[in-house]
Structures are given as C-alpha cells and as structure tokens.
Amino acid sequence: MTEINANYDEPWKEAIGDYFNHFLDFFFPEVYNLIDWLKPITSLDKELQKITADSSDSKRLVDKLFQVCLKDEQEVWILVHIEVQSQYDSDFNQRMFIYHYRAFDLYRKPVISLAILGDEKEKWRPSNYGYDLGGCQLNLNFPTIKLLDYQEKWDELEANLNPFAMLVMAHLKTKITTSNLTEREQWKWYLIRSLYDKEYSKLEIVKLFKFIDAMMTLPSLLQQDLNKKIIKYEEEKIMPLVSPFEQMAEERGLEKGLQRGLQQRIDRDKELIIRQLTKKLGTINTQLQTQVKALNIDDLETLAEDLFDMDSIDDLQQWLSKF
C-alpha cells in the first residue's frame, strides 16, 4: 500500500495550546512544579514569530512560546520546540540556542527552553549547545524528551489519563505504520475506541478524538471503513446527543450523507426528549414542542438533564422562557 503523509504538526501544536499544564505535568514535572497555576498563562504567538521570522530551515518544527509566573513571582518565558519529523537535524542544538537568546532578548526575562524529539533515530539526543574558545565559554543545557522511549512504557501510557499519554500513543503508532496503513487503521480504531472507555469528559473526548484523527491520516477507503466502525460503536454505546465523531464531521464539513445522518440523529433525539417530557408531565402542546425542537444542541442536552427535576407543564414553560 502506498505511503500517505501523516499530520504531526497541527495536533501537537493544538494540544500544547489547549493543554499546556498537562503537557508540562506529563513531560517536564520539574518545570510544572515551579509555576503558579493560579496566575494567567499567556500564549505568545506574535512574539514567537519575531523569534523565528528569519529562519531559513525547511524542516518542520512545532514551536510554542508561553509567558508564566513562577511561585516565587518571577516572570518567565517557556519556549517549546518539537521536532516531529524522522530525519537527523545537525543544526538543532544551535537553533535551540538562537531561539533561546532571541526570546530572552525581546523582554530580558528568564527563558526555559524545552525540546521534544519525535524522530526515530535512537542515538540522536541533543541537549546542549556551547563552545569554549580563547577563554570565552558559552553553554546552554536544555531538557529533552525522546518520544521513542515511551514505546517501552506502553502499559503506563494506556493507564495514564493525561491527554498527552494518548497523543504519544498516536504519534508512536503513526510512525511505525508509515508503510502499513491497514495496521494504522487498526491502531487508530483501537485508540479512538479507548477514548470512550476512559474517564474523560465529553469535551476532552471530542478534542482527543480530533487530535488522533488529524494525526493518523488514512486513504479515503480505509477512513470510510473506520467511520462505519465508529458510527456503529457509538450507536451501541448510545452516545449523548452529538457524539465526538458527529461533532467532528459537522465542524469539518464531511460528506453530505453523513451530515444528513447527523441531522436525522439530532431530530430523533429531540423526539425522544419530547416523549420523555410527555411521559413525565403529560400532553405537550404543539407550541411547546416547537420550542423544544428549536433548541440548539447544548441547550437540548441541558433540557435532557433538567427534565428529571420538572413536575408540571408550568415548570417546562418556565424553563423554555429563558430562551
């Protein structure tokens, strides 16, 4: 089967942006413990562009820059580099130093530079840059994480609820299935299915679902087969109103047939709630039914939860009057 380019960059960048605290807790707990998480965390995308603007490097890196406050009230910048490709990069150490200095030079604040290596070269583990020449010494040491090391910790990853445990598993299985996309589809299905079995919130399931789907790219036929499995699985699990798969389909504008199926599912859920209301409160007139059917998905979910506390049609009318 022909190879297909995986999409590592966007899922990693979005995941770090959405779950920066989980990112540090998972990979760099020492740094995590320095930060006062009650203070605002600022993502500095514009400042990062200034740091990397003149880079002529054609290799694809994921870079993120954050401004944080430590527990000792010191203001610090955290610069994250992720090398997600599989080739050796002889300039990585130097680039870490250059970006580190530029980040410091912008506002003259301490900088913590961190590196994640997602490549497949076991012995490539850059962690410092420096020289000693003519009495002039320069040295930058930076913490480095090698994702390849987690392959031997698979059981720990599966048991860990940190979102980055799931992302690392997706990354590793995407790498090793570069030339076997049928196996990738099997692993993608395994990881997606495991989301429903973990104690994630609905929002976390949706986000992690999207990260896995974006990274573990498949040819259209294999993706269609996977979509059928997911839909069947969600129906068997009786997913709440709009499932992660359906929400992803809606956001990305997938095939019209799936969109029609999504709308049909929503309509069925509305009819189900009306039947539940009728069973609990008595006959629901046409006007009230129309109001229920006009609710958006989030409000419909809220009604599904609140109807158990209603004792009369008046309670329903009062509830709907808020919309």
Brief description of this entry?
The protein has 323 residues and is an alpha/beta fold. The protein is built from 15 helices and seven strands.
Question: What's the arrangement of secondary structure elements?
Answer:
Blueprint: H1 9-18, H2 20-27, H3 29-32, E1 42-43, H4 45-52, E2 61-69, E3 75-83, H5 92-107, E4 111-117, E5 128-133, E6 136-141, E7 144-146, H6 154-159, H7 163-176, H8 181-197, H9 202-215, H10 220-237, H11 244-252, H12 256-281, H13 286-293, H14 297-306, H15 313-320
Parallel strand pairs: 3-4, 4-7
Antiparallel strand pairs: 1-2, 2-3, 5-6
Describe this structure in words.
- It contains 15 helices and seven strands.
- The chain is α/β, with parallel strands linked by helices and 323 residues long.
- Among the domains are: 114 residues, GMP Synthetase, Chain A, domain 3; 66 residues, no CATH class.
- The strands form two sheets. The chain has a five-stranded mixed β-sheet. It has a two-stranded antiparallel sheet with strand order 5-6.
- A hairpin with a 2-residue loop joins strand 5 and strand 6.
- The longest helix is centred in the C-terminal third of the chain and has 26 residues.
- The termini are far apart.
